[in-house]
Amino acid sequence: MTDNVASDAGFIPAARRILVNDPQQMVSELIDGYVNVWRDFVQLNSDGLIIRSNPKQSGRVGLAIGNGLGHEPAMMGLVGPGLFDVNIPGELFAAPGPLAIAAGIRAADRGAGVLLCVSNHSGDVLNAEMALRMLEETDPECRLLRLWDDISTSPVHGPDRRGGSGLLFVWKIVGAAAEAGLSLSECERIGIKVRENLRSLSAVFSGTENPITGHAVSPVSAGTALVGAGVHGDSTGEVVALEGADSITEHLINKISLDLEIEAGEHCGLIVNDAGAMSVLETTLVTRAAKRWLNHRDIVVDRIWFGRYATTLATAGVGISICRFDDELLSLWDLECRSPSLNIYRPDHVT
Question: What is the reported pLDDT for 345?
């Protein structure tokens, strides 16, 4: 049997190098290409920050985030009306430094303070806290919003958990609140509310290669799924047999719903994230299975989004996220946003 055929053990993909030029120039070339393609939405300022081409109205709360690259379209693809004002890019899988974050806070200021969103990873949090200490009295008021959703990293929902692909719920909903003119305190409150009603879990079916180090990211044996892999390829190490889309979806969503303690009659939003190398067929089947599972338990799925949002380079894997909705969160989700990777113009109700 050759290396490129299906077998009872699962599909074994052919080895492939990541298609880049000089790995040391990869980050700068990525940013240059992105802002040139999407110049109607974003531009690069003199500090190397990705900012909105059309700034938010004055007197509105600014929304900023820093993150390592390799997760595209997150977060540079979420800069635009109804979403982020500034993305502070770091190196591959590495948080930007405090000086860059401080510059990003200043760039995001529209006169009503800035909410700095931080996915709960140690480097991101440390550098964000240092940046806030660097701000001077003349700088805008800034609050740090630490965010977590990945249930694989701790049995208890809280700051021991890391951020995962479900944080798209936070970006969209808080972005809508800031664009609509809510105060800094209200935007912070809404962000915390989303965080406390949000859970995520992922599974990886085959990994990829880090183009700088050449090392494998999220290696997994054929015919198995690695459950709990994070956005940097790190994992809790739970390995399960890969038996089909319905089976792995049920495994993930059962754990998520138990942790969230969501019950019959409650409402939610559902996100299925492609980690970078999934087909539309596969993510559609996972989304179909997740929705059927929730509907069968009389949990109302108000909104669904699935596709490629937070990637781990070209990893084959999915993340499932559920956010409990009430009228406030649903109405903010439905407000208009426009960016390279997420555009919502009107409610698209799914029953």
Answer: 77
Structure tokens, 197: 């009603």
Burial (CB count within 10 angstroms: exposed 0-12, middle 13-18, buried 19+), residue 155 = exposed
Judged by DSSP in three states, 60 sits in coil
What is the pLDDT, as a whole number, of residue 18? Answer: 79
CB-based contact 151:323 (threshold 8 Å): no
Closest CA to 320 of 202, 241, 153, 172: 202
pLDDT value of residue 13 = 46
The structural domains of the chain, with segments of one domain joined by +, span 23-171, 198-344
- The residues with which 241 forms a beta bridge, in sequence order, are 224
**Rounded-to-integer distance, Cα 149 and Cα 159, Å:** 10
pLDDT for the residue 1: 34
What CA–CA distance (Å, rounded) separates 190 from 331? 12
Q: What is the pLDDT of residue 348?
A: 53
| Tokens of residue 222, six digits | 């054929």
Give the position of tokens 């997740």.
290
Residues of the chain where predicted confidence (pLDDT) is lower than 50: 1-14, 349-351
Instruction: Look at residue 218 in the predicted model and tell me its pLDDT.
Output: 85
DSSP structural state of residue 166: G
Torsion of CA 141, 52, 86, 339, to 10 degrees: 120
CA distance 163 to 167: 7
Q: Please report the pLDDT score of residue 69 as a whole number.
A: 96
Fold topology of 198-344: Hypothetical Protein Tm841; Chain: A;domain 3 (3.30.1180)
Report yes or no: 200 and 166 within 8 Å, Cβ to Cβ: yes
CA 333 to chain centre: 15
- The CATH number of 23-171 is which of 3.40.50.10440, 1.20.1440.60, 3.10.129.10, 3.40.50.720? 3.40.50.10440
**Rounded distance, CA 329 to CA 16, Å?**
42
pLDDT of residue 219: 86
Question: In the prediction, which pLDDT does 7 show?
Answer: 38
DSSP code of residue 276: B
d(CA 41, CA 39): 5
- Cα separations (Å) of 182 from 185, 198, 236, 312? 8, 22, 38, 33
